[in-house]
Write a structure and sequence with these properties.
Number of strands: 4
Order of helices and strands: HHHEEEEHHHHHHHHH
Radius of gyration: 20 Å
Strand content: under 5%
Shape: globular
Largest sheet: 2 strands, antiparallel
Strand order of the largest sheet: 1-2
Structural class: mainly alpha
Helix content: 40-55%
Amino acid sequence: MNPHGEPPPGEPIEPDELEPVENGEALTAEAAATDPEELLERFRVAATRPEGDWRLALIETMALWPLAKEEVDGRNFVYLLAGEAFDWRTLAERILAAPDIPVPREEREALLLDSALPAGLSEEEFRRRLGFAKASAFLNYFYGVTIEQAIILAVEEEIRKRRYARGFAPNDDRSDVAFEILYRATHDELITEFEVETGGKVGRRSRGPERAGGNLGSIDHFTYWLFQRRFKNADPARIASDTRKGLEQLERMRLAQARKNSDETSASPYIDLGDLHTYRAPPRYARRTRRPVRA
């Protein structure tokens, strides 16, 4: 640890050092003293500099953003799901949607819809620029939303392959079956449980890219809730197996995109999976292995 309480570069982040943040609270004392309007004005200036990169300025703005959630023009933006998972794309969307932001619409949409991190940054560099608190919450989002969605897709694909092997035509039921396998409840039952427990709302058949409709944040919140629910009800071996399945699904998707572009380097992974496996500390919800007590 350095004098500021942060691990040295390259060292794993210890999840026990993070406490959940209530919606509306600032992530850090430094952020609490930061005015969002002042940050937006600084970003406007930085984005107009010809020698700079507006995407790096955006990351700097996100690193200092003080709120875990806010309401803007009648829309609720939640940046910290369940007080512990940082959704950087929702925050980026809110910043880029502010008045007089000098970034072309095409470039904004490309950043929000691209599976890669901004400015071609590696996951380690992206976390470093975000700062300790948001970097830790970013890993929670990766495991709780990105990986969870990949696990669902992987199970759906397994169901589809089994139907083909048995001579059945594909149908639209594999999604519900996947939810029953993973969570022991149908998609609609889970949404009802989610809405009662959290007060959130999500479309009954929300699938595909829906950020333009303002619904992606609620889908991500639902997905993170599914992750928490599955974690509480599954055994450690099953959790590890499902996580591996999700990681492999992400890698297959990355390689498919690379083949589509005919250039593997143009489809960099959302997370460097090679680096990911080097972490000695698990994400916030990973179960710790008990060590035998020596007499």
